[in-house]
Specification:
A hairpin with a 4-residue loop joins β2 and β3. It is built from 9 helices and 3 strands; from the N terminus they run αβααββαααααα. α1 crosses α3, α5 packs antiparallel against α6 and α5 packs antiparallel against α8. The protein folds into 2 domains: 62 residues, Orthogonal Bundle (Arc Repressor Mutant, subunit A), CATH 1.10.10; 141 residues, GntR ligand-binding domain-like (Four Helix Bundle (Hemerythrin (Met), subunit A)), CATH 1.20.120.530. The chain starts with 10 loop residues before the first helix and ends with a helix. It is mainly alpha-helical. Strands 1-3-2 form a 3-stranded antiparallel sheet. The chain is 69% helix and 4% strand. One of its GO terms (molecular function) is DNA binding.
Length: 218
């Protein structure tokens, strides 16, 4: 086997990675105006890699270039609801494929993730990260990188709003109960119940996120 050269990330790649994480993580809120010069100063780089990173984020649907300004992409409550409906269609397909191939070891991994989420002292950012890990770990069982990529792109569009929701609730008791119901269906290899519980969970999350969004805007 011929060794392949190691690819070192460019400055633009690193700026893109950090900005993307800040936007999808909710650190930079939807609708925020972005200054290329300010970002360049903050990252101690020239404006060129910042502009390149922002163009990539525009392709991802995470920022919007206007005539005179650049802003983090924003959505109305109705648009968020529509994205959740799209997300459900993709996750339904992933669930149908994944449950046919899930193993007992996979179920154990999912159970471990939920155990780590069920802590009184868990921080919001950690809960959000583990929440993604739980769903992604199961969908990995579908063995379809293309489907996972599509799901990931849809997730990215709503993650900034998930941050608003997660920061607005007192606890995640109901979400955890729903996750346990989903896991029970996975462990039983019960496709019908799994799809039912997945749809209920998606509807609950969609309503909670849009409610938090509308509350923030009032």
């Amino acid at each position: 086997m011929q060794p392949q050269p190691i690819q070192v990330a460019t400055v633009g790649d690193e700026v893109y990675r950090r900005l993307r994480a800040a936007i999808t993580g909710g650190t930079v809120a939807p609708g925020t105006k972005i200054s290329i010069r300010s970002l360049a100063d903050a990252f101690s780089v020239s404006t060129m890699p910042v502009r390149e990173a922002l163009r990539r984020l525009e392709s991802d649907g995470l920022v919007v270039f206007g005539r005179r300004s650049i802003t983090v992409a924003n959505m109305t409550a109705e648009q968020v609801t529509q994205v959740f409906r799209i997300r459900l269609q993709l996750e339904t397909l992933a669930s149908e494929w994944a449950i046919q191939q899930v193993t007992d070891d996979d179920v154990d991994d999912l159970r471990d993730i939920l155990a780590r989420m069920d802590r009184d002292d868990i921080e919001v950012d950690e809960w959000r990260s583990l929440n993604q890990d739980f769903h992604r770990r199961f969908y990995d069982c579908a063995r379809s990188p293309d489907l996972l990529e599509l799901i990931g792109r849809v997730w990215d569009k709503v993650e900034p709003f998930m941050a608003i929701y997660a920061s607005s609730v007192d606890d995640f008791t109901e979400a955890h109960r729903q996750h346990l119901d989903i896991l029970d269906a996975i462990a039983a290899r019960d496709t019908y119940t799994l799809l039912l519980r997945t749809a209920e969970h998606s509807e609950y999350t969609s309503r909670a996120v849009t409610a938090a969004l509308m509350s923030k805007d009032t």
